[in-house]
Write a structure and sequence with these properties.
Elements: H1 4-7, H2 11-17, H3 23-30, E1 35-36, E2 39-40, H4 45-71, H5 77-103, H6 114-120, H7 129-150, H8 157-180
Antiparallel strand pairs: 1-2
Helix pairs in contact: 2-7, 3-5, 3-8, 4-5, 4-7, 7-8
Length: 193
């Protein structure tokens, strides 16, 4: 089974290539029909599977980050409860992506081990609740931008709506974390950047 390391694509690369995400991948994600704006869906589901697997890898990473935070014992009980809720949201996103990939005939990318995520996310450097929440906020902002990056490629508004809803979840997460961290309001628009 392929792993995220096999793809070696970063969030930035996902944003740069998000225009390549054809309607087939998100049609499967949303349960949309087989025609979009009178056109047959993309003929290359393998390309869609690759992009969806990158998104799936990012969801795996988010789930793991929240697990690291929960296991760190650094989060206050009320904050921990919210973090677990956000992790549950990422699990729903993961499951939607897995379903879409399978519908396209692809193999979903496997999650790394928790130890691998601990290393790549530098869990040893998490010394306070603020450190944990800062990591989560950084990952959430990356997810917001990834999901927003695909919206312009949709001819069918229903598919744009699906991506927008996922971006809205991530935006809610980021906004909540930013508020808890006492981050100032942004001086300029930066989502989708």
């Amino acid at each position: 089974m392929p792993t995220l390391a096999d793809n070696e694509i970063t969030r930035r690369q996902l944003l740069k290539t998000s225009g390549l995400l054809s309607l087939a991948g998100l049609a499967a994600l949303s349960g949309a029909g087989t025609l979009v704006a009178g056109q047959a869906l993309a003929a290359d589901p393998a390309a869609d599977v690759n992009i969806l697997n990158v998104a799936l890898g990012l969801e795996h990473e988010g789930i793991a980050a929240y697990q690291l935070g929960a296991e760190s014992k650094l989060l206050q009980p009320k904050i921990l409860k919210v973090a677990v809720k956000f992790q549950d949201d990422h699990k729903v996103h993961r499951d939607l992506l897995i379903d879409a990939i399978k519908k396209l005939g692809g193999a979903p990318v496997a999650a790394k081990t928790q130890a691998e995520y601990a290393t790549s996310l530098k869990a040893a450097s998490l010394k306070s609740q603020k450190d944990v929440l800062t990591l989560a906020a950084r990952l959430e902002l990356g997810a917001v931008n990834a999901y927003l990056g695909v919206i312009p490629s949709f001819a069918d508004r229903a598919l744009a709506k699906v991506s927008g809803r996922l971006a809205a979840d991530e935006t809610l997460h980021w906004t909540t974390l930013a508020s808890v961290l006492g981050m100032p309001l942004p001086k300029a628009m930066f989502f989708g950047a």
